Amino acid sequence: MFKSCEKIRPYAPLFLRAGLGIIFLYHGFGKVFGEGANLGSAWNPHGMSTIVQILVSWGEFLCGAAILLGFLTEIASLGIIIIMVVAIVLVHGKNGFSMMNHGFEYNYALITMALALIASG
C-alpha cells in the first residue's frame, strides 16, 4: 500500500516485543520492588493468596524482561497470556469487556499482542 510501510514491516515483531515487554516490566517492577511491595506479596486488593501474588508479580517482571530482551519470547509470551487469563477470570471478567467499566478490554489487547509474538516467532 504505502512504500514507507514496507520499509518498517520487518520491525513489527520488534515493536510488539518492545511494547509488551515495557508494559510488563513496568507493572511487574512496581509489584516486586515498589514501595511497600514486599517483593511481590503486598499489592493485591482482590484477596489472592500470597503465593499467587508473588507468582504474578515475578511472572510479570521476568516475562516482561525476557520479552524485551528477546529471550525465550514464546515461553514468556505464554506466561503473559496465562497471567492475563487469570486476571480476566478473577478480577476483570465480571465487569464485562469495556475498560470504562474496569472490564477485560486491556487484558484482551495484551493477550493478542502476546499471541502475535508467539505467531511471529
Order of helices and strands: HHHHH
Distance between the termini: 25 Å
Q: Shape, please? A: globular
Structural class: mainly alpha
Q: What do the pLDDT scores average to?
A: 91
Largest sheet: none
Alpha-carbon Rg, integer: 16 Å
Helix proportion: 55-70%
Question: Your description of this structure?
Answer:
- The chain is globular, with a radius of gyration of 16 Å.
- The chain is mainly α and 121 residues long.
- The chain starts with a helix and ends with a helix.
- The chain contains five helices and no strands.
- The chain has helices at 3-8, 12-33, 50-69, 73-92, 105-120.
- Helix 2 (12-33) packs antiparallel against helix 3 (50-69), helix 2 (12-33) crosses helix 5 (105-120) and helix 4 runs antiparallel to helix 5 (105-120).
List keywords for this structure.
121 residues, mainly alpha, 69% helix
State the gist of this model.
By secondary structure, the chain is mostly helical. The chain contains five helices and no strands.
Give the helix/strand layout.
Blueprint: H1 3-8, H2 12-33, H3 50-69, H4 73-92, H5 105-120
Helix pairs in contact: 2-3, 2-5, 3-4, 4-5
